[in-house]
Amino acid sequence: MDLYHISPQRATLWEKHKARLEEAKEAWHRRTYWYAYPEDVKAYSEEEASRGEAEFKAQLNRPFDRLLQKGRRWVVSDEISPYTREPLGISYPQSDVGEWIGAAQEALSIWRWVPWSERLGLLMESIERFSRKFFEVGHATLHTTGQAWMMAFQASGPHAADRAVEALAVAYEELSHIPPHVRWEREMGRAKAVVEKYFIPQPEGISLHIGVSTFPVWNVLPGLYASLAVGSPVIVKPHPRAIYPIAIVVAVLQEIFQEYGLPVSIVQLAVDTLEKPVTRSLAEHPLIRIIDYTGGTEFGQYLEALPNKVTFLEKAGVNCVLLESVDDIESVAKNLAFSASLYSGQMCTAPQNVYIPRSGVRTPQGVLSYEEVAQALQKAIEELASHPKAAPAILGALQNDGVAERVHRLSTFVQVRRAATVYAHPQFAQARTLTPIVAEVQTAYEHVTREEHFGPRLLLIPVESAHVALEILYQIARERGMLSCAVYTTDAGFKESAARLLVEAAVPLSFNFRGQVFINQSVAFSDFHGTGGNPASNASFTDSSFIAKRFHWIGVRDCLAG
Amino acid sequence: MDLYHISPQRATLWEKHKARLEEAKEAWHRRTYWYAYPEDVKAYSEEEASRGEAEFKAQLNRPFDRLLQKGRRWVVSDEISPYTREPLGISYPQSDVGEWIGAAQEALSIWRWVPWSERLGLLMESIERFSRKFFEVGHATLHTTGQAWMMAFQASGPHAADRAVEALAVAYEELSHIPPHVRWEREMGRAKAVVEKYFIPQPEGISLHIGVSTFPVWNVLPGLYASLAVGSPVIVKPHPRAIYPIAIVVAVLQEIFQEYGLPVSIVQLAVDTLEKPVTRSLAEHPLIRIIDYTGGTEFGQYLEALPNKVTFLEKAGVNCVLLESVDDIESVAKNLAFSASLYSGQMCTAPQNVYIPRSGVRTPQGVLSYEEVAQALQKAIEELASHPKAAPAILGALQNDGVAERVHRLSTFVQVRRAATVYAHPQFAQARTLTPIVAEVQTAYEHVTREEHFGPRLLLIPVESAHVALEILYQIARERGMLSCAVYTTDAGFKESAARLLVEAAVPLSFNFRGQVFINQSVAFSDFHGTGGNPASNASFTDSSFIAKRFHWIGVRDCLAG
Questions:
Q1: For residue B1, what pLDDT band results from cuts at 50, 70 and 90?
Q2: Where does A125-252 show beta strands of DSSP type E?
Q3: Which of B554, B28, B552, B553 is nearest to B310 (CA)?
Q4: Is residue B274 part of a domain?
Q5: Are B310 and B327 found together in one domain?
Q6: Nearest CA in chain A to B485
Q7: Claim to verify: residue B287 and residue B338 sit in the same structural domain
Q8: Are B260 and B384 part of one and the same domain?
Q9: Exposure pattern of B47-81 as b/e (b: 16+ CB <10 Å)?
Q10: Which residues numbered 302-321 in B keep a CB inside 8 Å of some CB on A?
Q11: Residue A384: inside a domain, yes or no?
């Protein structure tokens, strides 16, 4: 029985990329340092760099005409550069919800029957082609998200590509560990039963991917490639303020699908505007069966409650730091200042609450008082924020005005030790910037520490003892969720207590991060991102359930003799 | 960092069973004929057989005092033998919902930190010990479910044990494919980052398993062992009419947990009565995070809608047969008659709707008319049902009066070709029996064919053509769900069309089953049971998501140098 749409041309792509995907799969199991695409910008040629910049400049104030999907109208996006405060002036083709769903449904009838090996070959090829767009996507990311250049390049380029390869590696494992076909035989007295069995992976249905304005590529690629790998067409609904970066990826995929004789609507870009959002109409459509989402908690909870959907949600978390004892407060303060300042605290893994025992923090040189620790942190932030080169390279800009407003509102509840101030960006005079607020929160305002205040902030919280702080961290993780957590301790016993307690609350935990190792970062092929076990996220990049929940094994048995 | 509760004594069990579990894991991947426990009763000794029968007889009308869990009171169960119509007279210890949850929560704090290898060793050992109870559980199953002896022995004994081993094999794969600990190193300019990474599997929380009266062991063991394997304590809430069989399993597990220094409340039996059910109170408790369930659709939908639960549900399906063309109608009719009669149609995989083209069914000898096909089926059922030895061995008895009532009610909507009649059981004069109704359903009563009529029934449905029937099957699968489906065709083209269409509706499909191969049966290590893709079941025994959805990987990173 031959049920699949087979193409020798597509099969060559699988031959081309198979060894590399095997390597990625082994790296995923091994979990030591490995990457598919180098993160160092110097690993790429000058020519690539200047071509990417030129591509970006040529795209501004013009229709994004690289998509092959049909459009009913052109819509000018809400994208405004956080650096120049100028609209990007790019328009995108837009259809209606029913048209997107209809095209995806047509694509589903083909894509689900393309053998997984051909799908993986096509998708690996698309990542390779996308890698030639790393510079363009870097500029597009910088001018939509406000990330500084290095992050914009790495997060939307090689890091995102690595996460995509990772998703394909796990999909490869999940799809290949059951044979496509087997002959089952059994002696039954005088007779012999012979049954040909076919095991056919089938997607849950069409996928919807809802993007976020701060990480429009990194947070999309894992789910996008996971769904595509298992045969599910994806409708990508980017955040109206950050469309361009992911549009580049969608265009590359559509180009390859067309080249290899497949419907371009296997992946579609569904743009909307802040004024006329379409996300709910898409999400509620009964044919949408898989939803990936990064964003606020409230909308995430709405999505989670929709009936008959498989959801992969990353919502807000309240990330915490606990200082029990340290070797060197200065290096700890520097490390934390960097983590809190990186992209102005607009990473989902940025630290927010810093718990410091009132009795102080032990060091090999004696106990540092609460105030000494607080001052060290404040000083490290101050140094970074006032450094003319470091500030722009690390802080970048605020994605939108809401972030600044939130930080200013926060300052009315807390005791400000260091005010959030605008810093002058050396390259972009109009940049929307803000250095971190450092504030103290007393017990009476504890509720402030139970919410995420997305943006450049560090809340210092005096606490009875490190053990009490552990209990607080546990509660916050269980009730509000956490996407990162740093504990500093030189005490082996305390470390084990902390690990046991916080792991039970499904907290991704980091001990004694220092130097150039930051809690914000989770690297593909080694760190999971999100755990699925606390309210901040019901999924994890990229564990087996991130793939396995998207498809089902259907058995077909053909009895030849009974 | 050593976070686990380690025991050298428990570790020996892992050494003892590891090779066997490796073998099971390979079999799961290979999917050819393999078993852990032989299904043939003759593979077991006479001594075992008579000991099992004696154990069963000794248990009747006595408290089930083998459980080690605490009880607040003894409750006499609603168990009544479908064969003797006598109450079994067994009482079980009962606690209150809060007590069960509290004990499970205490167990969770230990069990989650027992290394998975020790857990798997303990669980394999428990299945081995349970295998010494196969005869007792067979008798207990016969006298609670109404299954005939061979099914009662096989389904609750070796077949259930095989599904448990299978669940452990997949858990072994899922838990072992990520290393527990790795040293991650990376050169960073002049510095070198060194991070010790720990990957710790943690369960979603406590599990609740809601059993069914017809398969009190086979449908419970996969989920029970899957949850236990990932560190989740399980509260087993059996159907009030079929407690004894699964109580035997729980007692074996508790005995082993106690022997190996663990809380017996890692698994608890939570009995209730028809008069005072506790299932909703348990299911709605916020600490219950995983629910396994087999039973009616309505209650399944209620469970599915509960917030913050991971559910594995098997609900009702409408199983269909389509006759397009056959080699030999007599052998097909015999095969279907057996499938429809086996355990009086009380298997979730029993066929119900038989679609026969009005224009007849092609054979190598010419076209058989609709009426000829209908008569062949009716005759095969008649022969089986009137055979003094075959009838009791195949039909067994009805689990409860509701089944008979449902079949009688059905007869008012359909055109009865063969009435459901009581057959005289040679061994048990009081047995609750009913032979299958064979009826015809005309288009006007089509709604009757869209519901499951659980019990001994076969509905013949004249249909325009085999292609039209395929469309009907597709619709039924999408809207109502299907747990099995048989298509008979000698036409390669029709076979492929049927496979493509029905696989898209996530139907487990069987072509041309004949002889001793029956569509009702799904065998461990080769067939999946349920697909997760149609409304009849949101899960599948045993694919990776059956395990992976129950736990999360939590990463702990310890930075040694940055």
A1: confident
A2: 181-188, 191-203, 206-210, 234-237
A3: B552
A4: yes
A5: no
A6: A556
A7: no
A8: no
A9: ebbeebeebbeebbeebbeebbbebeeebebbbbb
A10: 305, 307
A11: yes
Q: Facing residues of A209 across strands?
A: A236, A292
**Closest residue in chain B to residue A532, using alpha carbons only:** B552
CATH number at residue A495: 3.40.309.10
Distance CA B492, CA A1 (A): 8
Dig out the tokens for A183 from the structure.
Answer: 């002959």
Given A179, A511, A531, which is nearest B554 (Cβ)? A531
- Classify residue B349 by its DSSP letter: T
Judge if B277 and B327 occupy the same domain: no
Last residue of a domain, one of B285, B315, B345: B315
Instruction: For residue A178, list chain B residues with Cβ-Cβ distance below 8 A.
Output: 29, 31, 543
Write down the pTM of the prediction.
0.97
Residue A190: predicted pLDDT? 86
Cα angle A184, A186, A187 (rounded to 5 degrees) comes to: 155
- Report yes or no on A417 lying in a domain: yes
Tell me whether B40 touches chain A (CB under 8 Å). Answer: no
Cβ atoms of A293 and A303 within 8 Å: the answer is yes
- Between chains, do A531 and B513 touch, taking CB under 8 Å as contact? no
Q: Which of B31, B531, B559 sits opposite A517 (nearest CB)?
A: B559
Query: Does position A189 have pLDDT exceeding 90, yes or no?
Result: no
Contact B204, B552 (CB under 8 A): yes
**Pair (B29, B103) in one structural domain:** yes
**Domain final residue pick, B315, B335, B362:** B315
DSSP A414: S
Same domain, B219 and B353: no
Residues B245 and B258 in one domain: yes
Q: How far apart are CA B475 and CA B457, in angstroms?
A: 21
Which residues in chain B have their CB less than 8 angstroms from residue A528's CB?
199, 553, 555
* CB nearest to A204's CB, from B179, B533, B556: B533
Could you tell me if residue A530 is inside a domain?
A: no
Q: Report the C-alpha gap between B324 and B494 in whole angstroms.
A: 8
- Domain of A447 in residue numbering reads as 320-511
Q: Give the residue from A232, A302, A311, A511 with the most B CB atoms within 10 Å of its CB, the best one to mutate.
A: A511
Interval A122-161: pLDDT, tens: 999 999 999 999 999 999 999 999 999 999 999 999 999 9
Q: How many domains does chain A have?
A: 2
